Automatic annotation (TrEMBL):
This is Aspartate-semialdehyde dehydrogenase. One of its GO terms (molecular function) is aspartate-semialdehyde dehydrogenase activity. Its EC number is 1.2.1.11. The gene is asd. It holds the Pfam family Semialdhyde_dh. It comes from Enterocloster hominis (ex Liu et al. 2021). CDD domains: ASADH_C_arch_fung_like, ScASADH_like_N. InterPro entries: ASADH-related (IPR051823), Asp_semi-ald_DH_pep-lack (IPR005676), NAD(P)-bd_dom_sf (IPR036291), Semialdehyde_DH_NAD-bd (IPR000534), Semialdhyde_DH_dimer_dom (IPR012280). It is an enzyme of class 1 (oxidoreductase). Keywords: NADP, Oxidoreductase. Residues 6-138 form the Semialdehyde dehydrogenase NAD-binding domain. Coiled coil: none annotated.
């Protein structure tokens, strides 16, 4: 790309906003030119606004330190400075829906990490390796919004990334019933151990709203575009429990599956390791070369060893074995703030750019 696209980060001071900032440092296509946050941060430099709340392990990129934070509510002003925005705002769902559509109506594409628009029928919710064809709903959304360039696209919940790719790879064997338990990192709540000390040596068996997302969002990912809206798939039926565990980064899932067509272990593993999508074929900048890796060791995948596979954009599967009640069971692992949040949104933006949905203003 001759000239980089100008990017704004909405909600730039929060944990996912910070992850966007760190992932976009030295990005070959995108350059962060605008950071926006709440009125209390507006007018300060990004470095001042974040203060001692920088939560990434890598240092704050020099290029953003002196950027003056804009007020995210000043939509026209922010939008005038960028080609598109990533959204990681911390507001109520109604407020998020309203502000993301307001940005879209300024003819500014919005690629969102938020959940507010995940069930808006004409908003694509995409894992780029799995359902890139859902971007074809964007012209219908533009018609509703009255835009020619602006739209909203979202990525799904972080918790489903550790098992949805495997189930997709096994689609031809017709999985129809799934039981999953996810063991979710504290960064999924925007926290570190420093600001959530009570999570050390603790497990909390409840994460608000997470189980419904984990059960329903894969069905929308596997849905079809019909009459200008995405219609969710009917199966596999998924039931899920979501548990918060004392891990900083990395969501693990323990999953049981029933198949209509009975595959062998060798067939299942082969489908995992050979599975790839458009990001791999197009060699997009953030795409992992290997989307899913299978690990033969009994004690893998492990968070400390495997969460950064593919720079945090890959998915690790292990412990695939026959079950006495279900057909097969396995353990999955994905990085919740890279693949599951900011990185997944960056990959969506790369594919949207490659397909001509995001362009220079």
């Amino acid at each position: 790309m001759e000239k980089k696209l100008r990017v704004g980060i909405l909600g730039a001071t929060g944990m996912v906003g910070q992850r966007f900032i760190s992932l976009l440092e030295d990005h070959p296509w995108f350059q962060v030119v605008t950071v926006a946050a709440s009125a209390r941060s507006a007018g300060k430099t990004y470095e001042e606004a974040v203060g001692d709340r920088w939560k990434m392990t890598s240092p704050m990129p020099e290029a953003v330190k002196k950027l003056v934070v804009m007020n995210v509510a000043e939509v026209e002003k922010v939008a005038s400075t960028v080609d598109f925005v990533f959204s990681a705002v911390d507001m109520t769902k109604d407020e998020i829906r309203a502000i993301e559509e307001a940005y879209a109506k300024t003819e500014t594409p919005v690629v969102s990490n938020n959940s507010a628009h995940r069930w808006t029928p004409d908003v694509p919710m995409v894992i780029p390796e799995i359902n890139p064809e859902h971007f074809a709903v964007i012209p219908f959304q533009r018609k509703r919004l009255g835009t020619t360039r602006g739209f909203v696209a979202v990525k799904p919940n972080c918790s489903i990334q550790s098992y949805t790719p495997a189930l997709t790879a096994w689609k031809e064997f017709e999985p129809y019933e799934v039981v999953a338990t996810t063991y979710q990192a504290i960064s999924g709540a925007g926290k570190t151990f420093k600001d959530w000390p009570e999570m050390a040596e603790n497990i909390i068996p409840y994460i608000g709203g997470e189980e419904e997302k984990s059960e329903q969002e894969p069905l929308r990912i596997w849905g079809t575009l019909e009459g200008g809206v995405i219609v969710k798939a009917k199966e596999p039926v998924i039931t899920c429990q979501c548990i918060r565990v004392p891990v900083l980064n990395g969501h693990t899932a323990a999953v049981f599956v029933k198949f209509r067509k009975k595959p062998s272990k060798e067939q299942l593993i082969e489908k995992l390791v050979s599975f790839k999508g458009l990001p791999q074929e197009l060699n997009l900048p953030s795409a992992p070369e290997q989307f899913i890796q299978y690990m033969e060791e009994d004690n893998r995948p492990q968070v400390t060893l495997d969460v950064d596979f593919g720079k945090g954009m890959g998915v690790s599967i292990g412990r695939l074995r026959e079950d006495t009640v279900y057909d097969w069971k396995f353990v999955g692992l994905s990085h919740n703030t890279v693949r599951g949040a900011a990185g997944g949104a960056v990959l969506c933006a790369e594919l949207l750019t490659e397909q001509g949905y995001i362009t220079h203003k």
